[in-house]
């Protein structure tokens, strides 16, 4: 995995820690929530309004792992319309991690990950593949999901992908997933208490989402969904 050690200070202050730097690329169809995930990862903010990413956008996430290991993730948010574009391979090239994102309420966005994954493999060609994660977003809409967890797990297993279920909207599992990805890239094994401590340190207020709770059309809405909305997430 590509890794760069550097000092990230504004000046040459000797106190500035040494960061492990990794390029992380978010890929997936338009409107699956890549920008929302990046802003949740990095700014702990969520915007309801959809603003299409043209080309790409950049974010930076700094994480301190157990053992005082400082990690800087350069997050490349690639617009979903780039799939047919000539620049896509250039965007993917040199990444340490690729996060394949889909919207659990949009089956097509899941199916199209075959194409996104193919493009990643083609970019890396004979060279080792980066860390690749499968990220199911919009988990707050689990009551209208179109992609069953079984399908997700099968795709992840078949392609040897790390697997995450998140909601950029509520923040559910977002900080945990990025913390885990940072640790995996840095080669740090996290214990459960370490992961929980990180999440507890950065509470995100879960937003109440209006679900049709007792709608007979969505009988699968259950107590877990309701509890999820009320929890505090990292
Ligand atoms: N309910 C819900 N909506 C979400 C979630 N994440 C994103 N959205 C909404 O989905 C829409 C698209 O989100 P974006 O983050 O702009 O999607 P994108 O994948 O970056 O889209 P492109 O720029 O076209 O590639 C926006 O209206 C978001 O508010 C989520 O977890 N839950």
From TrEMBL:
GO terms of molecular function: GTP binding; GTPase activity
InterPro entries: P-loop_NTPase (IPR027417), Rab (IPR050227), Small_GTP-bd (IPR005225), Small_GTPase (IPR001806)
Positions in coiled-coil regions: none
Pfam families from the UniProt entry: Ras
SUPFAM superfamilies, alphabetized: P-loop containing nucleoside triphosphate hydrolases
Keywords: GTP-binding, Nucleotide-binding
Gene3D superfamilies per UniProt: P-loop containing nucleotide triphosphate hydrolases
Protein name, per record: RAB28 protein
Organism, scientific name: Symbiodinium pilosum
Gene that encodes the chain: RAB28
